[in-house]
Specification:
Length: 204
């Protein structure tokens, strides 16, 4: 019997449909999308099926994640072979010079803070003029009460790894601005998550 390399995330299974609905609303009919931190590969498999005009390029920092992504996306012609990608590197080998969108779910709070700046710089390098970087996950926000669940999650993350933790949306916006990007849309999502759409600043 062959072992199934697919990893499974219950959260990815739950949030796939709400994320896809927003991607369908925000994105044009066709293009090339780079997914950062694809994880199990469930989002790539599910969301690409609902975006028939899009080529989906998954990636992950961990080489060990790539077999799961490939297994989830097996037979999906519009999903490309996953890349191993470190957002901190100044060049992203294998990534097209220009992509029409980027999608990154649940990376910022389980990666060192420097990865936020790396993500924003990479988006500024590779997004087309009208392209969007779409991030998803839990955030802290000034003047918005943080849910008890997100507070507990933040405490747990920092106990496991001091470099991890929920990020202030305002801090993320500052890093985006340094790279020439600005927040276009803030969408409240289920389970106290946010979907944020970033595009090039008018001054950039």
């Amino acid at each position: 019997m062959i072992d199934d390399p697919r990893r499974h995330s219950p959260a990815a299974e739950r949030n796939g449909a709400p994320i896809l609905a927003e991607l369908q609303r925000l994105l044009p009919p066709r293009g090339v999308l780079l997914e950062i931190a694809s994880g199990t590969g469930q989002h790539a498999a599910f969301c690409s099926a609902g975006l028939p005009g899009w080529q989906w390029l998954p990636s992950d920092f961990e080489a060990a994640a790539l077999p799961s992504i490939s297994a989830w996306c097996a037979g999906l012609e519009r999903v490309r072979v996953p890349l191993q990608l470190d957002v901190l590197q100044p060049h992203w080998p294998g990534v097209p010079a220009m992509v029409d969108a980027m999608f990154c779910a649940n990376m910022l709070h389980i990666a060192p803070w420097a990865c936020c700046a790396g993500l924003m710089r990479g988006a500024a390098r590779h997004l087309t003029a009208q392209g969007l970087l779409i991030t998803y996950g839990p955030y802290l926000e000034d003047e918005v009460p943080t849910s008890a669940g997100n507070l507990a999650f933040d405490t747990d993350l920092r106990a496991r790894q001091p470099a991890w933790g929920l990020r202030r949306r305002e801090d993320v916006a500052q890093e985006a601005a340094r790279a020439g990007l600005a927040l276009r849309e803030r969408v409240a999502m289920p389970a106290n998550n946010l979907l944020l759409a970033w595009g090039r600043s008018p001054q950039a």
